Every structure is written in structure tokens, then in C-alpha cells.
Amino acid sequence: MCCGRWERKEESSCTEHLYRCGTPTALGEKDAEILLSLVDKHCFSKGKGAIEYTVEAGRPDSINREKLKLLQDFSVDRISINPQSFHQESLDIIGRKHSVEEVKEKSILWQESWALTTLTWT
Questions:
Q1: CA–CA gap between residue 57 and residue 68 (Å, rounded)
Q2: pLDDT exceeding 70 applies to what percent of the chain?
Q3: Angle 52-57-59 (CA atoms, 0-180°, nearest 5)?
């Protein structure tokens, strides 16, 4: 799933990290947990001095309560969702599988699940 490459130099310290490799939330919960565990162990974590940990959530249809909980468990404090448009006709034309209503529902789910984090629409 990951199209990027992790590099870590011993002398460098990373205080902010944005994990964007396609849509990480498209992974199932078990695979996402494995990925987040590897990132936490080998690359990046709040315990290693990170100030902000952002995950690109991509499509609204890739988000559920379980994935939000998992992201929280790994100290992700910001997610970025890209609905492409808030106009249903535009979503239909570009072939997006989610609806404007689903975007609103996911926003409410995020608010209920994760009140102390940042949600950005990209």
C-alpha cells in the first residue's frame, strides 16, 4: 500500500510527521494496526518527541469508528479528509463512491469519537 520510503537518521529529530501514502485508512483495521505499529516502532511516535502526527484519511468512505479509535490509540492527533467536493453532482461526475451526506456523517462521527483532535478538509 505504501508508495513512499521511510528514512531515519540517528542525528535528526522529527517533530511533525504527515503520513500520506495513498489512503492509509483504506487498509483494514488489522493491517492499519500493523502499519501504525511499525511506524511507531521504527520511524515516528509521540514518545519520540513528535509534536504533531497527521494521517491522510483520504476518502470519507474509508473511515469508521474502529479506525478512528485505532488512530487515537497511536496518538495521531490530526486527520485530513479529502471529499473532493461538497456537491453531489461533481462527486458523481468524477466517479467518487461517497456522497455529500456521507461526508457530513463522517464529520459527526469524528466529532463524537475524537473531540480533542484536528480535522482538516483538503
A1: 10
A2: 68
A3: 160
